């Protein structure tokens, strides 16, 4: 398989690059790939710099890489030069220091999976995804100090952070090239519903074709549906 990471040795130490999807080809249920990454990580000592530009990928691979980097004896400096989204944002949290380019973005959201099967399979999948979400929250909570409920709400909304907002909320420590003498620019964050609504408001749809705004989905609460089903028995 083609590695989704690569190392570069230089005079100041070692640099690890993640550029693209995390474990696009293989990792989970693969005995070779995780061992290979760990062996390369521990093949030398000293501080390392991790350059991260990834839309995400396999959360199980990201979780294992996160732990390997946290266990590494040298200092780990993570630099986000483009995007650290989804599973890649979990890897970013392993840094002893996290630095973002002023034009970089960070995104967190709920884990997802393709599910096939009967009702029991779907129920098990829901339980699994909930547990995966809790494990991801652990990494964000440890780094930021935000409450689990705050982080969970951000994941539900698929939240995107500018570099300034990431620093403000504790997802990063500082911004590349920023002068300490200058006041930091105001950060921003947004979710997919806000973006979709803003985009649709720019359109001029014909009457009855496309709604002007797209509201968050609503429906009957699970508890109420379950109570109704019991009444039918």
Question: What is shown here, in short?
Answer:
The protein has 8 helices and 9 strands. It is α/β, with parallel strands linked by helices.
Low-pLDDT segments:
none
Radius of gyration equals 21 Å
What is the distance, rounded to the nearest whole angstrom, between the alpha carbons of the first and last residues?
Answer: 54 Å
Range of helix content: 25-40%
| Average pLDDT rating | 86
Number of strands: 9
* Main β-sheet description: 9 strands, mixed
Tally of DSSP helical segments: 8
Strand content: 15-25%
Q: H/E series, N to C?
A: EEHEHEHEEHHEHEEHH
CA-based shape: globular
Walk me through the structure:
The chain is of the alpha/beta class and 233 residues long. The protein has helices at 32-41, 59-71, 87-92, 119-144, 148-156, 163-169, 192-202, 222-232, and strands at residues 5-10, 13-19, 48-54, 76-85, 97-100, 105-108, 159-162, 174-175, 189-191. Strands 1, 2, 3, 4, 5, 6, 7, 8 and 9 form a nine-stranded mixed sheet that branches. A hairpin with a 2-residue loop joins strand 1 (5-10) and strand 2. Helix 1 packs parallel to helix 2 (59-71). The longest helix is centred in the middle third of the chain and has 26 residues, at 119-144. The protein is globular and about 70 Å long. The protein starts with a strand and ends with a helix.
């Amino acid at each position: 398989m083609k590695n989704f990471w690569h190392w570069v040795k230089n005079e100041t130490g070692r640099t690890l690059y993640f550029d693209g999807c995390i474990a696009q080809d293989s990792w989970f249920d693969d005995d070779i790939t995780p061992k290979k990454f760990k062996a390369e990580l521990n093949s030398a000592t000293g501080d390392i710099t991790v350059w991260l530009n990834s839309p995400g990928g396999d959360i199980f691979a990201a979780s294992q890489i996160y732990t390997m980097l946290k266990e590494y004896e040298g200092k780990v400096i993570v630099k986000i030069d483009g995007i650290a989204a989804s599973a890649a944002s979990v890897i970013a949290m392993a840094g002893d220091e996290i630095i973002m380019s002023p034009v970089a973005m960070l995104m967190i959201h709920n884990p997802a999976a393709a599910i096939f099967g009967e009702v029991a399979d779907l129920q098990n999948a829901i339980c699994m995804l909930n547990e995966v979400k809790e494990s991801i929250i652990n990494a964000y909570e440890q780094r930021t100090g935000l409450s689990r409920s705050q982080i969970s709400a951000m994941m539900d909304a698929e939240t995107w952070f500018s570099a300034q907002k990431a620093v403000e909320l504790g997802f990063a420590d500082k911004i590349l090239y920023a002068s300490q003498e200058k006041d930091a620019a105001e950060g921003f964050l947004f979710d997919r519903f806000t973006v979709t609504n803003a985009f649709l408001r720019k359109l001029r749809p014909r009457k009855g074709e496309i709604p002007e705004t797209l509201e968050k989905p609503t429906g009957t609460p699970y508890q109420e549906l379950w109570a109704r089903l019991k009444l039918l028995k």
